Amino acid sequence: MSLLHEVKKLASEFSEDTIGIRRHLHAHPELSFQEYETAKYVAAELRKLGIEPKEGVAGTGITALIEGKNPKSKTIALRGDMDALPIFEKNEIPYKSKNEGVMHACGHDVHTSCLLGAARILNQLKDQFEGTVKLVFQPGEEKNPGGASLMIKDGALENPRPQRMLGQHVMPYIPTGKIGFREGQYMASADEIYLTVKGKGGHAALPDKVIDPILIASHIIVALQQVVSRNADPKKPTVLSFGQISGGHAQNVIPDEVKISGTFRALNEDWRFEAHKRITSIAQGLAEAMGGSCDVLIDVGYPFLINDPETTQIARKAAEAYVGTENLVDLDLWMGAEDFAYYSHVVPSCFYRLGTGNEAKGTTLGVHTPKFNIDEDAIEIGIGLMAWIALEELSAS
């Protein structure tokens, strides 16, 4: 039996157990940097396989090694994120979240379970490959500064240092059975924008006696659109969106201040930080011109994510052998963000998409929604493909 067929056989054999792990994780979600029970569970599952975990990396993170023959020859890292989102789940399923207001609405339960499943396959086959596979179970993907940045600072990519790294993420917009790839830049940087517009409150019937922060805020929101429409190079994708504005508590009272928050996305680091300066300058200058002031806080988040061409080509070729050419999807640029980007700036990496969409099963709703779910048939593919890509990356020169 070829190694490819052996991987597929083991993936089929382990899929039911892996689905069980996924359902346990889904029912017991924990927020970013609070993955205490999740980490204990993952460590226990690794020990069942005879793999000794290194716990407490960046708080709740875990790393572990699967050593094949000649383990120092090459190292490939595989990453799975463990945190959930502050969302009330609306799915009526047996494994619905038991932690009210917390939900695995981004598929991290799938990522963690698939990494455990792939680890089980690779551990079974460790006498058939050369090199080392490093498992990286990461906290806090959903929250700045990003668990990946903290894992790197805490040495997760050292001793041994991987030559390549892989990350797998669910994609409900791609049908189950299909896998998405993109070489080069793939996902955007993401920064959080917080503006506090300050004026002078008073009675709404006496506008000459107040400095209206609501009016100032409305002008700032409109004016900041020129950062994208008139300052950004049209060839450099850029997004500036405001999702929250709050101020005041009565229809006839002008408040003292208004708070605005939003997000800035870009695919060029020089332009990213130039845009920060323009946002600050416009917001503060306009507020002052209208008699008020504006405090600007830009919480710098994840960098853009780049897929190393060689690493991605190897992964894509491996996926072609595993699922067939007809089941490969070319991904477009995605203005969403992922903290896997930090790894991609340190180690040649490939971040690919696992199709989980199935209209008949109702699993095509987007991530970060209260009814997000996956077609669990994708898990067998997810564990086998991740293991197979790792083996192909190890064997590549």
Explain this structure to me?
The protein has 397 residues and is of the alpha/beta class. It folds into two domains: 3-187 and 304-395, Aminopeptidase; 189-299, Alpha-Beta Plaits. The protein has ten helices and 16 strands. The strands form four sheets. The protein has an eight-stranded mixed sheet with strand order 1-2-4-3-5-16-6-15, with helices on both faces. The radius of gyration is 23 Å and the shape is elongated. It starts with a helix and ends with a helix.
Quick take:
With 397 residues, this protein is α/β, with parallel strands linked by helices. It has helices at residues 3-27, 36-48, 108-124, 147-153, 213-224, 226-231, 269-289, 309-323, 340-344, 377-395, and strands at 54-57, 61-67, 75-81, 132-138, 164-175, 179-181, 184-187, 189-198, 202-203, 238-246, 253-254, 257-266, 293-299, 305-307, 328-330, 349-357.
Features:
Alpha-Beta Plaits; single chain; 35% helix; Aminopeptidase; 397 residues; 16 strands; elongated; 2 domains
Number of domains: 2
Q: List the uncertain runs.
A: none
User: Strand portion, in percent?
Assistant: 15-25%
The count of strands amounts to: 16
Given this structure, which CATH class of the largest domain is correct? Alpha Beta
Write the layout of secondary structure elements.
Blueprint lengths: L2 H25 L8 H13 L5 E4 L3 E7 L7 E7 L26 H17 L7 E7 L8 H7 L10 E12 L3 E3 L2 E4 L1 E10 L3 E2 L9 H12 L1 H6 L6 E9 L6 E2 L2 E10 L2 H21 L3 E7 L5 E3 L1 H15 L4 E3 L9 H5 L4 E9 L19 H19 L2
Helix pairs in contact: 1-3, 1-10, 3-10, 5-7, 8-10
